[in-house]
Each structure stands twice: as structure tokens, then as C-alpha cells.
Amino acid sequence: MTRPAARGGSRASADRLARLLNLVPYLLARPGIEIAEAAGDLGVTERQLREDLELLWVCGLPGYGPGDLIDMAFDGDRVTITYDAGIDRPLRLTPDEALALVVALRMLAETPGVSNREAVERALAKIEDAAGDLVGAPVEVRLPADTRRVESLRTAVDGGRALRITYYTAARDETTERTIDPLRMLMVGGRAYVEAWCRRAEAVRLFRADRIDAVTELDEPAAVPPQARPHDLSDGVFRPSPDLPLITLRVGRGERWITEYYPCERVEPGDGDQWLVSLRVTDLNWARRFVLGLGPDVTVVSPVELAEQVRATATAALDAYARPAPAARRDPAADAPTPGGDPAVAAGPR
């Protein structure tokens, strides 16, 4: 329900920015113009024009002190720009600025979920043409993902086809076959995702592109049911809720990074350099693998079930290392000297 309003807000902001950029040269060419006349020419109300003029007071050059900001004088209902802060001059980009802008636009053009990639590419072409040799450096932009997989997913989403995918679910450490009806491609936290209606789960799900092992485009169109709604990802992909398991860990200095990487409900000082960290997890199987991967500076405080699972898995791993490996069958010919060569080298390819 809030998405159309958000798009409308973005459109209104863009319209206002364009109006402000046009307002300064317009007023410079008409010193002392009446506000009512200017409002009529610009197609806005007098109230809106006065709000725009109030915003111009705080616009200007970096430093934003006296002599940096746009200034104007009012005489009753007339307005005159007395200092334009250089906004009437054509934009001149330094080589570094031009290159940074080109790289940013190239990255945007490659980002999944961009709805109007053609507009980005047109803007990029214009800037490259205007900048000329300034952006001639051999720069290639690639997203941190499987480019071919992302492109195939993007093609399927744009084409409105259903997909059959082989997907690895890290939370359960399992691979499943699913048929999905794509909604959109998007980039969250530097990772590419396809958001789709999953026919197996009968719900909208997010699938990480790098965890999709195989993709088959079906001959049938995507059939997204009316009740399917995209997720609100403004706060990230994982959104902790009270119904998820809560785990508490005692972490040393070397593992404090998890408090910055994962959403934590509580972080408290413990003994010495240790912290007590509480966070929600999707399930305890994921938490078990998570804790085992952290190392010896982490201890499970609660729940007891998680501590027992970690202990059992670690004990089984140690037992496996303690058992001697089965003796390998040897080929007597492998030990025979090889004329003109090292026996070890000759035995290697065998």
C-alpha cells in the first residue's frame, strides 16, 4: 500500500529539483519580478514558489557559509537574485569526477532490479560523449555475483516466464527443486536476488542468485497469484521477529564482528574481554553451523539444545580425526625405479 506513495514522493522530489535548477537562471534574467507573475510562468502556486525560494536560501557551494549560499532580496512581493553561487555556469567535471560518475552509472546499469535501464544507458552515453577523453580509461564494472546466472535470471524475469530452479537453502543445508514465478530482480547488500512466488512453499520467497545451481526456463508464463506481494527490504533481507529462536553467545574480542554483521537484540559486557550477544536465527540447525564456524572464542550460553548440538557435532568431528585412515592398497610397480626419472614423479599420475 505504501509503494505507490513512495514512487510518487520520488517523482515529486525529482520535479522540484528540476524546478529549482530552472528557477535561478529564470530569476537572474528577470530581476525584481513579482512572485505572482513568476508562479504563473513556472506553473506553480505562489505558496509553492515561496517554499522553493526558502529552500534556495540554504543551497550553494561546499562550505555553506556566508558567501557560499544563494542569496536574494525581497521588495514587497518582488524578488531578485543577488548571488547565484555559480549555478548559472555550465557544469565542468574534473577527470576524477567524470570517471566516478561514469563508473557509478555503469554499476547502476548492471544492477538487477533497475526498472529503466535504457534511461541509465542514455545518460551514460551523453556523459561519456561530453567528457570525451576524460573517461577513456579502461574501466570495467562487474557486480560481485555470477554474471551469467544473473543475466539469465534477469532475462527470465523480463520475459515473464516461469522457472524451474535447483536451489541450495543454507538455513537447512539442503538442495531442492522448485518451480517459481518471478516477480523481480533486485540487489540487496551487494548480492543479487530473484523474488518470486514459490509454488512449493505457496508464498513469496527470495532466492540468492549465487545459491541457484541450475535454471530452466519453462514454456509457460509466470503465474503470480493476486495475493503475492513483494517484501519490504528497506531494513535488509533478514528481519528478526519474536517467533524466531533466540540464541545467546559468549564471544571473545576476535568474534565481536558478528555484532556489526548480524542484527542483535542485546549486547552486554561479560567477564574480561568477553561479550554476551543475543540474536534471532531462522532455526537452530543454521545456528549450529554458524557457531561451529566461529571458532574457539565463542561459547553457547543458551538455549541448552543448541549447546548440545554444537558439542555433539564437534565431538563427532574429533572422533573422525582420531580414527586411523584405512590403509590404501599399493601397486608394487609404483615403487620400482623408473629409468631416467624420479620414482615419485612417475608414480604421481597413476
TrEMBL record:
Every PafC HTH domain range: 15-128
Regions of compositional bias (Low complexity) in chain numbering: 334-350
GO CC annotation: proteasome complex
Boundaries of every WYL domain copy: 150-216
Keyword hit for tRNA-binding: no
Alphabetically ordered keywords of this record: Proteasome
Keyword Nuclease: no
Any Pfam family hit: WYL
Region (Disordered): 322-350
Domain WCX: 247-318
Protein name, as recorded: Proteasome accessory factor C
Species this protein is from: Micromonospora krabiensis
